[in-house]
Model the fold of this input.
Amino acid sequence: MTDTIYVILLNFRGWADTVACLESLYASENVRFRVIVCDNASGDGSLDHIAAWADGRIEAETPATERLSRLLGKVRRPLRVERLDREAAETGVISPHAELVLVDNGGNLGFAAGNNVGLRLALAQPDMAYAWLLNNDTLVEPGCMAAMRDKLAALDDRAVCGSVIHFFDRPEVIQALGGNRFNRSTGVASRSEGRFQHESEPFCPETTARRLAYVSGCSMLLPRRFLEKVGLMDEDYFLYYEEIDWFTRAGERFPPCIAADAHLYHREGRAIGSAGWRRRASAFADFHIYRSRFLFMRKHLPLRLPLCYAGALLEVGKCLVRGQVANARALLTAMLRPSLDWRPCP
Done:
C-alpha cells in the first residue's frame, strides 16, 4: 500500500514537548501513519526519555487547560520502537513493524538538515504517500492529519497543505492560518496570516491560501511528488527561511492550501527563542533570521539585497534604542560574518 503518512518531528532538548506531541499524534483518527523523531544531538538523554514514554515507563506532562488535556491519555503503549543512528537512517532501511523510529542525527544539524534526515528515510519507504513536517512543541487534534490528507487528495496532490494553528497558551486565538506572506522587496516575512484572530471569526481557506507565500514549517503536509520534483530543504539554512526557499523553488507547481478542519496548538518559539506571545526574539534567533534572510535574498533576489541590508541597519538602531545590545550585535554579525557557525553550545 502507498497511503502512509510519515510524520517527521525534530527534537532538540525538548523531549517533554516531544512526548506530549507524540501522545496527541497517536490519537489521530482515520489515517495510516508512522512517526520518525530525529534528535539533533540534544545531549540530555532525549531519545532515552522518548523511548521510555513509548514503553509506558514515563508519562507526558498534562496541560493545565481541559481543552488541551483531553488530547492526551488516549494512546495504548508500549509502542514498537526502532532506534537508528544517522548512518543507519541514511541506508533507508527500517523495520516494517516499527511504529516509532528514533534517529540520532549525531550533531546539531539545524532545522533543514535535521528534518532532511527524516525526509530521506521516509522517501525510502515504498508505502510513503505524504510527509508531515510537524514542530515537536505542538499538540494536534485527532482529526488534524486526516483533514490535511483529504485536502491534498482533493487537489490531486498538487499542493502543500497547512493547518489552523492556535496559540498553546491561548487556544481560542489563532497563531497562523496555514502560513505567511512574504515581502519580496525587503525580504521580510510578515506576521502569520490570521495572527491574533479569534477562532470564532470565519475565514475562507481558498482566499486565505492565495495570500500565502508559503506554508508554515510548524505544520506542513507534503505529497511525495513534491519531494521528488522539488527536492529536500536547502541545508545552507540553519534556521528560518527554509520554507520560503522551498516554495520559491517549487514556483506555481505546488501552491499553498489550508485544511480548515485541521487544528493544532503550538508553543511558539519555545525551542529556539523566536519572538512569541509574551517574548521578544533572542539574540540567537535574530542572528539566524537575518543570516538566512541575507542568504535567501542573495540566492533568489540579489538586486534587492541592498534594501534588505538597509532594513537590517535600521533594526540595529531600534535594538540599541530598546537596550537590546546583544540583539544589535547579533544582527551586525549576521551582516558581516554570515558564515559564522553560531549554534547552541553542547
About this structure: The chain has a mean pLDDT of 93. The CA atoms of residues 87 and 233 lie 19 Å apart. The radius of gyration is 19 Å.
